Amino acid sequence: MRVHRLSTRCRYTLQLFVGFVRRNGERSAHTHFLCQTILPVDRSAVVRRNMSFLFGNRSTKTFKPKKNIPEGSHQYELLKHAEATLGSGNLRMAVMLPEGEDLNEWVAVNTVDFFNQINMLYGTITDFCTEESCPVMSAGPKYEYHWADGTNIKKPIKCSAPKYIDYLMTWVQDQLDDETLFPSKIGVPFKRNFMSVAKTILKRLFRVYAHIYHQHFDSVMQLQEEAHLNTSFKHFIFFVQEFNLIDRKELVPLQELIEKLTTKDR
């Protein structure tokens, strides 16, 4: 289990999302995934309950300390803007690029945040996602994913879901740790291929959501984590839709759920 460091530029997004889930539990019904009525959930309690598990079993790298956003800085002002939009309960508005802000900067901040969210979500169900229960990385009977990163594994290989997700999270963390791709200091320019890399990261993170929903939603419900999962996924989908970061064909495994979660916000 890995949780990526949050640099000065990206700390605020995770803080905001935690606060939003705590104040505004999502309510939804979803028949295909047997999603029952969702009640508000205190995400801070969820995180505390799972923290020893999350950092105890799957961590192979030490994550760096988070940095505080200094009051009065530009990042702090952006934090207050985002808090106001998230606090309104309007996720469509919350994911929009703040006026005057750089798109690459906004995508970078949110990509790190979603990586951390998905790490914690998957960490809650790793006892149920094993080599035996998930011998292939799939999203239902029609969709199977094979892993390749173009460097260490050049040709796609078939592997179990936990192995695939370990490959995926390691690869994503390597991208986030690359200062030439995700510069941690404000003012350092992004590389020309940044958006392409970010799109690939988000496309692959979507597959973890898809696997959890299709293969482990019963376990999520047993753990009473469905509110956290649904709100996180809705936030993720609104963000990638806002900036066209994932091709529609990649979203097909969860299309029905996406429509149900987003219809009322159109």
Automatic annotation (TrEMBL):
Q: Where does Zn(2+) bind?
A: C129, C134, H211, H216
Q: Metal-binding: present as a keyword of the record?
A: yes
Cited InterPro entries: MOB_kinase_act_fam, MOB_kinase_act_sf
- Keywords of this protein's UniProt record, alphabetized? Metal-binding, Zinc
Check the record and name the Pfam families matching this protein: Mob1_phocein
| The UniProt record lists the keyword Acyltransferase | no
- Show the PANTHER family listed in the entry: MPS ONE BINDER KINASE ACTIVATOR-LIKE MOB
Q: What is this protein called?
A: MOB kinase activator 1B
